[in-house]
Amino acid sequence: MATPLSLRVVEAEARVYRRTWRGSVASSFLNPVLYMLAMGLGLGALVDANMPGGIDGVSYLTFLAPGILAANAMQTGATEGAWKVMGGIFWAKTWHARLASPISIEGLVLGHLLWSTGRVVMVSVIFAVVIAAFQVAPLFESLLAVGPAVLLGAAMVSATTAFTVRLKEQAGLPMFFRFVVLPMFLFSGAFFPISQLPNWLQPVALITPVYHGVELARSIVIGAPPAVTWWISTAYLAAWIVGFGLLCVKPLRKRLMP
Protein backbone atom coordinates (compact mmCIF):
# COMPACT_ATOMS: atom_id res chain seq x y z
CA MET A 1 0.00 0.00 0.00
CA ALA A 2 1.26 3.47 -0.88
CA THR A 3 2.43 5.55 2.07
CA PRO A 4 2.30 9.36 2.24
CA LEU A 5 6.09 9.51 1.89
CA SER A 6 6.14 7.26 -1.18
CA LEU A 7 3.51 9.55 -2.70
CA ARG A 8 5.93 12.42 -2.14
CA VAL A 9 8.27 10.65 -4.56
CA VAL A 10 5.44 10.51 -7.08
CA GLU A 11 4.75 14.21 -6.50
CA ALA A 12 8.40 15.09 -7.10
CA GLU A 13 8.46 13.15 -10.37
CA ALA A 14 5.19 14.76 -11.46
CA ARG A 15 6.58 18.24 -10.82
CA VAL A 16 9.53 17.47 -13.08
CA TYR A 17 7.32 15.87 -15.74
CA ARG A 18 5.07 18.93 -15.76
CA ARG A 19 7.93 20.79 -17.43
CA THR A 20 8.97 18.05 -19.85
CA TRP A 21 5.76 16.30 -20.89
CA ARG A 22 5.47 17.95 -24.31
CA GLY A 23 8.46 16.10 -25.69
CA SER A 24 7.21 12.68 -24.60
CA VAL A 25 3.58 13.12 -25.64
CA ALA A 26 4.50 13.61 -29.30
CA SER A 27 6.46 10.36 -29.44
CA SER A 28 3.74 8.55 -27.47
CA PHE A 29 1.30 9.29 -30.30
CA LEU A 30 3.77 8.94 -33.15
CA ASN A 31 5.16 5.50 -32.21
CA PRO A 32 1.83 3.60 -32.25
CA VAL A 33 0.75 5.35 -35.45
CA LEU A 34 3.97 4.27 -37.17
CA TYR A 35 3.60 0.71 -35.86
CA MET A 36 0.04 0.51 -37.15
CA LEU A 37 0.95 1.93 -40.56
CA ALA A 38 4.21 0.07 -41.18
CA MET A 39 3.62 -3.27 -39.48
CA GLY A 40 -0.15 -3.48 -39.33
CA LEU A 41 -1.19 -2.08 -42.71
CA GLY A 42 2.07 -2.37 -44.67
CA LEU A 43 3.39 -5.79 -43.65
CA GLY A 44 -0.12 -6.85 -42.69
CA ALA A 45 -1.34 -6.53 -46.27
CA LEU A 46 1.32 -9.02 -47.40
CA VAL A 47 0.56 -11.43 -44.54
CA ASP A 48 -3.18 -11.33 -45.16
CA ALA A 49 -2.66 -11.87 -48.90
CA ASN A 50 -0.70 -15.05 -48.21
CA MET A 51 -2.89 -16.20 -45.30
CA PRO A 52 -6.54 -15.69 -46.33
CA GLY A 53 -7.70 -17.29 -43.09
CA GLY A 54 -5.69 -14.82 -41.05
CA ILE A 55 -3.77 -15.59 -37.86
CA ASP A 56 -5.97 -17.25 -35.27
CA GLY A 57 -8.90 -16.27 -37.48
CA VAL A 58 -8.24 -12.52 -37.50
CA SER A 59 -6.36 -10.13 -39.77
CA TYR A 60 -2.72 -9.45 -39.08
CA LEU A 61 -3.47 -5.90 -37.96
CA THR A 62 -5.95 -7.18 -35.37
CA PHE A 63 -3.49 -9.83 -34.23
CA LEU A 64 -0.61 -7.36 -34.06
CA ALA A 65 -2.19 -4.32 -32.39
CA PRO A 66 -2.76 -5.70 -28.85
CA GLY A 67 0.60 -7.45 -28.96
CA ILE A 68 2.40 -4.22 -29.76
CA LEU A 69 0.37 -2.42 -27.11
CA ALA A 70 1.70 -4.83 -24.49
CA ALA A 71 5.24 -4.95 -25.89
CA ASN A 72 5.39 -1.15 -25.99
CA ALA A 73 4.33 -1.05 -22.33
CA MET A 74 7.15 -3.50 -21.59
CA GLN A 75 9.69 -1.25 -23.29
CA THR A 76 8.39 1.80 -21.44
CA GLY A 77 8.66 -0.03 -18.13
CA ALA A 78 12.19 -1.19 -18.89
CA THR A 79 13.25 2.34 -19.81
CA GLU A 80 11.76 3.77 -16.60
CA GLY A 81 13.59 1.15 -14.55
CA ALA A 82 16.90 1.77 -16.30
CA TRP A 83 17.92 5.33 -17.13
CA LYS A 84 15.80 7.08 -14.50
CA VAL A 85 17.26 4.84 -11.79
CA MET A 86 20.79 5.28 -13.11
CA GLY A 87 20.30 9.05 -13.07
CA GLY A 88 18.86 9.02 -9.57
CA ILE A 89 21.80 7.04 -8.18
CA PHE A 90 24.82 8.12 -10.24
CA TRP A 91 24.23 11.18 -12.40
CA ALA A 92 21.84 13.67 -10.79
CA LYS A 93 21.93 11.81 -7.44
CA THR A 94 18.33 12.81 -6.75
CA TRP A 95 17.79 9.56 -4.87
CA HIS A 96 20.50 10.54 -2.37
CA ALA A 97 18.72 13.85 -1.83
CA ARG A 98 15.37 12.14 -1.28
CA LEU A 99 16.85 9.86 1.34
CA ALA A 100 18.10 12.93 3.22
CA SER A 101 14.41 13.57 3.91
CA PRO A 102 12.20 11.27 6.04
CA ILE A 103 11.63 9.05 2.98
CA SER A 104 12.87 5.50 3.58
CA ILE A 105 14.43 3.11 1.10
CA GLU A 106 11.13 1.22 0.92
CA GLY A 107 9.22 4.46 0.33
CA LEU A 108 11.67 5.49 -2.37
CA VAL A 109 11.31 2.16 -4.20
CA LEU A 110 7.53 2.16 -3.90
CA GLY A 111 7.27 5.76 -5.07
CA HIS A 112 9.50 5.02 -8.05
CA LEU A 113 7.40 1.98 -8.99
CA LEU A 114 4.16 3.94 -8.65
CA TRP A 115 5.35 6.83 -10.81
CA SER A 116 6.87 4.55 -13.44
CA THR A 117 3.68 2.51 -13.60
CA GLY A 118 1.79 5.77 -14.08
CA ARG A 119 4.00 6.52 -17.07
CA VAL A 120 3.17 3.09 -18.48
CA VAL A 121 -0.53 3.90 -18.05
CA MET A 122 -0.15 7.19 -19.95
CA VAL A 123 1.67 5.58 -22.87
CA SER A 124 -0.69 2.58 -23.01
CA VAL A 125 -3.87 4.66 -22.97
CA ILE A 126 -2.58 6.72 -25.89
CA PHE A 127 -1.72 3.49 -27.74
CA ALA A 128 -5.23 2.14 -27.07
CA VAL A 129 -6.78 5.30 -28.51
CA VAL A 130 -4.67 4.86 -31.66
CA ILE A 131 -5.79 1.22 -31.92
CA ALA A 132 -9.40 2.34 -31.74
CA ALA A 133 -8.74 5.07 -34.33
CA PHE A 134 -7.47 2.38 -36.74
CA GLN A 135 -10.75 0.52 -36.10
CA VAL A 136 -9.00 -2.58 -34.84
CA ALA A 137 -11.37 -2.76 -31.87
CA PRO A 138 -13.92 -0.50 -30.16
CA LEU A 139 -12.47 2.08 -27.79
CA PHE A 140 -13.87 0.30 -24.73
CA GLU A 141 -12.16 -3.01 -25.58
CA SER A 142 -8.94 -1.22 -26.50
CA LEU A 143 -8.91 0.51 -23.11
CA LEU A 144 -9.62 -2.80 -21.35
CA ALA A 145 -6.48 -4.20 -22.98
CA VAL A 146 -4.51 -1.47 -21.22
CA GLY A 147 -4.90 -3.42 -17.97
CA PRO A 148 -2.66 -6.37 -18.93
CA ALA A 149 -0.24 -3.98 -20.66
CA VAL A 150 0.14 -1.98 -17.45
CA LEU A 151 0.71 -5.15 -15.41
CA LEU A 152 3.44 -6.13 -17.86
CA GLY A 153 4.98 -2.66 -17.82
CA ALA A 154 5.01 -2.59 -14.01
CA ALA A 155 6.65 -6.03 -13.96
CA MET A 156 9.41 -4.73 -16.22
CA VAL A 157 9.86 -1.58 -14.13
CA SER A 158 10.38 -3.76 -11.08
CA ALA A 159 12.70 -6.26 -12.77
CA THR A 160 14.79 -3.62 -14.56
CA THR A 161 15.11 -1.53 -11.40
CA ALA A 162 16.32 -4.59 -9.49
CA PHE A 163 18.95 -5.07 -12.19
CA THR A 164 19.99 -1.41 -12.42
CA VAL A 165 20.50 -0.86 -8.68
CA ARG A 166 23.15 -3.60 -8.74
CA LEU A 167 25.21 -1.99 -11.49
CA LYS A 168 28.36 -0.05 -10.78
CA GLU A 169 28.32 1.78 -14.13
CA GLN A 170 25.94 2.37 -17.00
CA ALA A 171 27.70 -0.01 -19.40
CA GLY A 172 25.49 -2.87 -18.27
CA LEU A 173 22.26 -1.21 -19.43
CA PRO A 174 22.87 -1.31 -23.22
CA MET A 175 23.74 -5.00 -22.82
CA PHE A 176 20.53 -5.58 -20.86
CA PHE A 177 18.41 -3.96 -23.57
CA ARG A 178 20.25 -5.75 -26.37
CA PHE A 179 20.19 -9.25 -24.93
CA VAL A 180 17.07 -9.20 -22.72
CA VAL A 181 14.58 -6.49 -23.67
CA LEU A 182 14.96 -6.65 -27.47
CA PRO A 183 14.66 -10.48 -27.73
CA MET A 184 11.58 -10.41 -25.50
CA PHE A 185 10.07 -7.68 -27.68
CA LEU A 186 10.65 -9.67 -30.86
CA PHE A 187 10.10 -13.29 -29.85
CA SER A 188 7.37 -13.36 -27.17
CA GLY A 189 4.31 -13.51 -29.39
CA ALA A 190 3.75 -9.85 -30.22
CA PHE A 191 4.54 -10.16 -33.93
CA PHE A 192 3.77 -13.83 -34.57
CA PRO A 193 2.58 -16.87 -32.57
CA ILE A 194 5.33 -18.50 -30.54
CA SER A 195 4.39 -21.78 -32.22
CA GLN A 196 6.45 -20.47 -35.15
CA LEU A 197 9.58 -20.52 -32.98
CA PRO A 198 11.89 -23.56 -32.79
CA ASN A 199 10.63 -26.15 -30.31
CA TRP A 200 13.48 -25.53 -27.86
CA LEU A 201 12.78 -21.79 -27.82
CA GLN A 202 9.04 -21.95 -27.18
CA PRO A 203 9.35 -22.75 -23.43
CA VAL A 204 11.75 -19.81 -23.09
CA ALA A 205 9.18 -17.47 -24.66
CA LEU A 206 6.49 -18.95 -22.42
CA ILE A 207 8.25 -17.92 -19.20
CA THR A 208 8.82 -14.32 -20.28
CA PRO A 209 6.42 -11.76 -18.81
CA VAL A 210 5.87 -10.29 -22.27
CA TYR A 211 4.17 -13.46 -23.51
CA HIS A 212 1.64 -13.37 -20.69
CA GLY A 213 0.91 -9.66 -21.13
CA VAL A 214 0.53 -10.07 -24.88
CA GLU A 215 -1.81 -13.05 -24.53
CA LEU A 216 -4.02 -11.26 -22.01
CA ALA A 217 -4.27 -8.09 -24.10
CA ARG A 218 -4.91 -10.01 -27.31
CA SER A 219 -7.62 -12.15 -25.72
CA ILE A 220 -9.52 -8.98 -24.77
CA VAL A 221 -9.24 -7.42 -28.24
CA ILE A 222 -10.08 -10.48 -30.35
CA GLY A 223 -12.47 -12.05 -27.84
CA ALA A 224 -10.74 -15.43 -27.66
CA PRO A 225 -9.50 -17.17 -24.50
CA PRO A 226 -5.75 -16.77 -23.88
CA ALA A 227 -3.39 -19.72 -24.29
CA VAL A 228 -2.70 -19.58 -20.54
CA THR A 229 -5.56 -19.18 -18.06
CA TRP A 230 -5.99 -15.46 -17.36
CA TRP A 231 -5.58 -15.70 -13.59
CA ILE A 232 -2.31 -17.63 -13.93
CA SER A 233 -0.85 -14.96 -16.22
CA THR A 234 -2.11 -12.19 -13.93
CA ALA A 235 -0.63 -13.85 -10.85
CA TYR A 236 2.64 -14.44 -12.69
CA LEU A 237 2.97 -10.77 -13.63
CA ALA A 238 2.01 -9.70 -10.09
CA ALA A 239 4.71 -11.99 -8.71
CA TRP A 240 7.27 -10.24 -10.91
CA ILE A 241 6.17 -6.86 -9.59
CA VAL A 242 6.30 -7.83 -5.92
CA GLY A 243 9.29 -10.17 -6.09
CA PHE A 244 11.64 -7.90 -8.00
CA GLY A 245 10.38 -4.89 -6.06
CA LEU A 246 11.55 -6.54 -2.85
CA LEU A 247 14.87 -7.37 -4.49
CA CYS A 248 15.49 -3.63 -5.02
CA VAL A 249 15.56 -2.78 -1.32
CA LYS A 250 18.72 -4.45 0.00
CA PRO A 251 21.17 -3.34 -2.74
CA LEU A 252 19.75 0.20 -2.61
CA ARG A 253 20.19 0.35 1.14
CA LYS A 254 23.76 -0.87 0.78
CA ARG A 255 24.54 1.61 -2.01
CA LEU A 256 22.77 4.73 -0.74
CA MET A 257 22.96 4.32 3.02
CA PRO A 258 26.50 3.06 3.82
Main traits of this protein?
258 residues; mainly alpha; 0% strand
Description of the molecule:
The protein is an all-alpha fold and 258 residues long. It has one domain (4-256). Helix content is 77%, strand content 0%. It has helices at residues 4-17, 21-50, 60-91, 94-99, 105-133, 139-144, 146-164, 172-187, 202-206, 209-222, 230-256. The relative contact order is 0.14. The model has no long low-confidence stretch (mean pLDDT 94).
- The domain tally reads 1
Order of helices and strands: HHHHHHHHHHH
Largest sheet: none
Strand content: under 5%
Rg calculated over all Cα atoms? 19 Å
Question: Globular, elongated, flat, extended or rod-shaped: what is the shape?
Answer: globular
- Sheet/helix structural class: mainly alpha
- CA-to-CA gap between the ends? 27 Å
Number of strands: 0
- What is the helix content? over 70%
Global mean pLDDT: 94
Low-confidence stretches: none
Helix count? Answer: 11
Short description:
The chain contains eleven helices and no strands. By secondary structure, it is an all-alpha fold. The chain has one domain.
